[in-house]
Amino acid sequence: MTPGAIERSALRLDRVGATLAALGVGGLALGPFVSARPNRIVDGVPHGLFEALPPSLAAFVALVAAAAALVALSQAPPVLRAFAGAAALACLTLALGQAPRHLTAPGDIYARVAPGWGYWLAGFASTLLIADALTRLRFRPLARLAALVIAGLAAAAAIGSGALDDLSIMKEYAIRATSFWAEARTHLALALGSVAAALAIGAPLGVAVHRVTAARGPTLAVLTVVQTIPSIALFGLLIAPLAWLARTIPGAAEIGIAGVGAAPAFVALTLYALLPVVGSVVSGLGAAPPPAIDAARGAGMTDWQVLAQIEAPLGAPTFLSGLRVVTVQNIGLTTIAALVGGGGFGTFVFQGVGQTAIDLVLLGAVPTVALSFVAAVVLDAASESAGAHA
């Protein structure tokens, strides 16, 4: 593309970018950048961008946000759009870390300064601008994974630098650092362990109902019924039978079976994961073209050889897409496990709800969202890569 063509393209209005620019600029102009409270449980006082920050820093943030909005509005190259979104998000977040120092007295350990909805809206718009640019760039799977690693390293650097330490969520983390990582391990164990159990049960079951078509309808119907049960209700329904097993079967309690705790959470999460797993296996195996299967059998392949060498490779993209859905689903649902004593990030969410402490809620919600996002990107890249090699 010639320089003149690039200039003419940049002058045309981008509809997606116009929406994102309106969200970002509107959030900063009309909404509170932060909310300040004298302690963690009382209502906060909203502060706009120029109240929350020193004038020079607020002006700089506004300038960067305006520049990013102009890039979003134009038909600028995707690389420039990604850079503008990243610069705006980084500037907003690092400036956010300076707001507590501007609004609170030095040494005040009780005051809490949290992001306001204006920051969240502007940050959301910046993130969508980056995502839109990456979509237009049509990155290959490895490039998307590299972008994810870079984003993770940037986030880790920002947190590790101490620039965000005075924010309320980081103060909550500082108080609970040991328990945070313990609950993180529990969350991952429940979420990923239940997915692994669902794969161990659901993959063979999916192969079986693919082969025996008469069993396909009833099996999927039963799993659909399980999927429709509300999560809290399913956790509750499992308490009584698991408690009975713990009392009745010798050694059951010793291996962790109990009416409350991780056991009902693990069983419920596994049950929820079965329908997506079985459904994706059946759909993936059914995607193999009948002529390819007939040719393989004509060449003397057994049913298991057809499954391993023809149906499974061709169905891998569909299966991995289903695995992405179930992994993201279970990472989110594991939050509910805290209601039955299962632990995980939901512990902070429900403690925060009970104490009317939104920062404690965020301490559990933000890493859950981050884990879901990472799982979605990784498994989406794996699915696309498998499709390219199928």
Automatic annotation (TrEMBL):
One of its GO terms (biological process) is glycine betaine transport. It is found in: Cell membrane. PROSITE patterns: ABC_TM1. It comes from the Bacteria. It is a multi-pass membrane protein. Keywords: Membrane, Transmembrane, Transmembrane helix, Transport. Its main location: membrane. Belongs to the binding-protein-dependent transport system permease family. This is ABC transporter permease. It comes from Hansschlegelia plantiphila.
